[in-house]
Amino acid sequence: MAKTVDYYVFLASPWAYLGSQRFADIAKRHGASIRIIPMAAAEVFPVSGGLPLAKRAPQRQAYRIVELKRWREFLGVPLNLQPSFFPMNEALAARLVIAAREAGQDAVGLAHTMMRAVWAEDRNIADPEILEQIITETGLDPAKLFGAAESDAVQAEYTRGTQQAIDANVFGAPSYVIDGEIFWGQDRLDFVDRALAKS
Fold first, then answer.
1. Distance from C-alpha of 148 to C-alpha of 140, rounded to nearest angstrom
2. Which of 59, 69, 121, 122 is the 20 to 30 Å CA partner of 134?
3. pTM of this prediction?
4. Where are the domains of the chain?
């Protein structure tokens, strides 16, 4: 029986971006479904010991750049190490992804396009006009998604998804949860592949 992967993301995460297309390809190969769950870092970090980038020790910040360079070169994925609009408020973008998910549309593809916009195209996904452009580029209807994103129901889903992440012991992004087992980080995708192969 095909499995469902709960895919927890921060849309502004470079690590989620580096893994997003590979993860989608792995899931497709195994016939697995993906339930994308955007979560709010400001809620997840305080209860899990995480820190926003600016509050991390200089050594950790420096090593993050080293690792991003390594993965960018290894994967051959375009990635700007210091995008102009990072960090940003990703709440609206997250609600738009949730709106697409709830409408049965390609929310995973939309999320990937948003991540690529930040990390490869130097675009600001906190800007509603940029988000409208991105949605149009993916072939979805901006008016419908923006309308849904402002609804109480979608806001409640964003809050619920964040709490679901906390309850599942998710502490960072990307996290892939299969049958209750957490795989944290795009560098764990080989293990995700193996877990899905067992189904």
1. 13
2. 69
3. 0.96
4. 4-197
Structure tokens at 104: 């049965």
Question: Is the CATH code 3.40.350.10 the one for domain 4-197?
Answer: no
Specify the length of the chain in residues: 199
Contacts of 160 (CB under 8 A, 6+ apart): none
Q: pLDDT digits over 95-147, tens only? A: 999 999 999 999 999 999 999 999 999 999 999 999 999 999 999 999 999 99
Phi/psi of residue 20, nearest 5 degrees: -65, -45
Whole-angstrom CA distances from 95 to 28, 72, 180, 182, 190 are 24, 28, 24, 23, 29
